[in-house]
Amino acid sequence: RVFLLRIFTLVALIGGLYALGEFRRRRPGEPPLDKGLVPWLGHVLEFRRNTLTFLERMKQKHGPVFTVQLAGFYFTFVQDPLSFGALVKASREKLDFNKFAAHLVRRVFNYEAIEADHNILQISSNKHLKGNGLEVMTQAMMSNLQNLMLYNVGLPADKKTWMEEALFAYCYNVVFRAGYLSLYGNEPFDSKSSEETAREKDRAESEALFYEFRKYDQLFPNLAYGVLPPGKKREADRLTDYFSNFLSVQKMKTRDNISRWIWDVQQAQEEAGMKESMINRHMFVLLWASQGNTGPSSFWLLLFLMKHPEALKAVKEEIDKVVKESGQEVQQGGPLLNLTREMLMKTPILDSAVEETLRLTVAPLLTRAVLQDMTIKMADGRQYFIRQGDRVAVFPYSAVHIDPEIHPDPHSFKYDRFLNPDRTKKTDFYKAGNKVKYYTMPWGAGVSMCPGRFFATNELKQFVFLMLVYFEFELKNPDENIPGIDFRRWGFGTMQPDRDVQFRYRLRH
Ligand code: HEM
Ligand SMILES: *[C@@H]1O[C@H](CO)[C@@H](O)[C@H](O)[C@H]1NC(C)=O
Ligand SMILES: *[C@@H]1O[C@H](CO)[C@@H](O)[C@H](O)[C@H]1NC(C)=O
Question: How many CA atoms lie within 13 A of 465 on its CB side?
Fold first, then answer.
């Protein structure tokens, strides 16, 4: 009996190790395999601590394609920008995005995704977040930005008084709240006299929402990795409920100006038979996707402009010219600027500064589940076998954004990096003599590419445009260094700074 028990224990042990992936060996034709020392977990601790330095270390050791074990999954990283096309265009029968995304939103938002979600979002975004659909959104965003930026500064007595704020807190606050109001609508009013009360309510409610959102924002990286301690996890669950109630379908029905983007998604999910409580949770998923990155991006953009006077000057001149050409003039006590989409399409210098900011500060991790055994073909003709059940990933920040061959002097902010001498958009970038098609990827690529990217760019530009038109602003300490990056957020979109910086602003006119 004892003997049998021993055999049984041994079999269980081997079975366990097998399940933990301990016996996996690199097969001929597969990428280099690096399992790490810890069973099952593999390299996940180092990966989580600093994704960038980990991937750079692996690339040094194995070259641009390698397979690593991360918390029970084998991830093959393809870090050769010339070979991205093959991945981005791989058929959905082989590389699947939805499975991974559905897993993440279940863990992070308690939201059960349905098959149709991806299509619903694509259709609604194509209609309302790009092209002509953007005209309505631009109007809404402008009106909300002005409500938030100007309500406390209009007094003549204040004109030459500097107001001091922390830059990250200020930018994130204003852009988050204006974006939220533009997508989820305003408090209704029925007369001129109730208008000011309604505006005040919009300001107060969006402030409360932002306050809670920032708590969630702090918990997010560990929540996404599934390593929040129980107390914090309860806090995250409480917040999810708070947001679902705040943004509920019933509450939205009482608001004005709710965007067609939100409206259409709600309708389509209702028609697909989704329970209302689940649609409410999805409303929070969309708040997260739409408001988590734009605010931090606007911070980096303003900071880079303040640290680079020649860039600030060039953008300011461009903007002043556009305002003048629109026949408007911004004066004290005069009408507010009507900043239209047409005006926003005449700013190539600002466009380049935005793109450069995203290159330096946006670092998504693009992940696909491998549904069938497959081969990836590299640009240089090499091929690699990839196993079903594994994952394929790209981290464009290290593979392209800071590759010195593609972007010389990659850690410097050069506002005109994406500008040709004739002021058209520069799209020619090279590596080893080959043209690089994916020369930045802040929005991801292929099926999962950000459907809000046109609106997001528009928001950033509107915010900076209005800041420059209405205010003069400067760093409190002109010699302020650019803060470091909070490494915990690699892979989640726009990076956040590891500390805030003080700035001050006052009305220009
Ligand atoms: C600077 C701002 C933004 C950045 C850097 C950004 C970046 C991204 C990235 C990288 C993805 C793809 C994630 C992946 O492949 O796993 C994504 C997805 C998404 N983004 Fe954005 N985004 C921004 C702003 C916005 C805005 C303003 C909206 C909406 C108004 C939006 C809506 C979405 C949605 C709905 C998805 C999920 C798409 C899907 O599941 O197919 N994003 N975003
Ligand atoms: C709806 O948006 C427009 C601007 O797009 C604004 O003028 C109007 O006041 C908004 N309605 C409410 C109730 O805020
Ligand atoms: C701003 O200009 C656009 C286009 O010329 C116009 O449709 C819109 O009504 C104007 N908005 C305001 C608030 O004046």
Answer: 32
Packing angle of the helix pair 453-470, 133-150 (nearest 10 deg): 40
Pocket-forming residues, ligand 2, beta carbon under 6 Å? 139-140, 143, 186, 188-189, 256-257
Does 3.80.10.10 match the CATH number of domain 117-364+399-507?
no
Instruction: Name the band, by pLDDT with cuts 50, 70 and 90, for residue 2.
Output: low
pLDDT value of residue 55: 98
- For residue 426, count CB atoms less than 10 angstroms from its CB and return exposed for 0-12, middle for 13-18, buried for 19 or more: middle
Model pLDDT, residue 10: 60
| Domain layout of the chain by residue ranges | 117-364+399-507
Tell me the one-letter amino acid at 221: P
Asked whether the predicted pLDDT for residue 373 surpasses 90, the reply is: yes
DSSP-assigned states of every residue in 194-207? HHHHHHHHHHHHHH
Using only C-alpha atoms, what is the Rg of the chain?
A: 25
Q: Which ligand is nearest to the CA of 181?
A: 2
Q: Distance (Å, rounded) from C-alpha 404 to C-alpha 407?
A: 5
Alpha-carbon separation of residue 33 from 11, 50, 368 (angstroms): 26, 20, 18
Ligand 2 centroid from CA 264, angstroms: 19
